[in-house]
Design a protein that fits this description.
Helix content is 73%, strand content 0%. By secondary structure, the chain is mainly α. It has one domain. The radius of gyration is 19 Å and the shape is elongated. The model has no long low-confidence stretch (mean pLDDT 88).
């Protein structure tokens, strides 16, 4: 059995954010442990978002430019898979280190299932919204881009890339809440 310290960490893993997260969470009284878990989940999610967006940027800039809804769906799916692996690993190690009554395989399967539900919602939203959002936002964003790159001329995929990223931000925020509550009460339901 793994020893868990007062902050909910395993002895070998210390995170510089633990002190801040615990201090914020303790302001919530009897709900402090759940707030602490949510804040850790949000930090893990932020790291996952960096992995997600970074992977999407690289994939769209190299092998799958956003020229068709299927290429957008494929690129966001690749990015999603990279983020899921990151998120599961860090949630198991840091957010829920005291959840060990289920095997890692079972937890990963539950985590993946919940994530796939979120992915379906997110990918559907992005696939439907990327082009209208990009077309709408490009005239607003172009003057800002010109402040830093005066000679910039948008490529034919620029609006699609912009729309993909904006739709993804909205999708990530909505799906984060689904993922937290579904994982808390299903995947990691063995913690107090």
């Amino acid at each position: 059995m793994t020893h868990i310290d007062a902050a909910g960490n395993t002895p070998g893993f210390k995170n510089p954010l633990d002190t801040v997260i615990v201090a914020i969470a303790h302001r919530f009284g009897h709900r402090s442990k759940e707030v602490e878990r949510f804040l850790r989940f949000a930090v893990v999610g932020a790291v996952g978002a960096v992995v997600d967006f970074g992977t999407l940027f690289v994939v769209q800039a190299t092998i799958l430019p956003p020229v068709h809804p299927l290429s957008v769906a494929a690129a966001t799916t690749i990015a999603f898979c990279a983020a899921i692996l990151s998120n599961f690993t860090w949630n198991r190690i840091w957010t829920y280190p005291d959840s060990r009554s289920k095997s890692v395989r079972r937890q990963l399967a539950l985590f993946a299932f919940i994530s796939v539900v979120g992915w379906v919602v997110r990918t559907g939203w992005i696939t439907l919204a990327y082009q209208p959002l990009g077309t709408f936002l490009m005239p607003w964003v172009l003057p800002l881009i010109h402040l830093f790159r005066p000679a910039y001329v948008p490529s034919e995929t620029a609006a699609g890339k912009l729309g993909t990223f904006v739709a993804m931000v909205i999708g990530v925020i909505v799906v984060m809440f689904w993922n937290f509550f579904a994982n808390r009460y299903w995947t990691y339901n063995d913690v107090n």
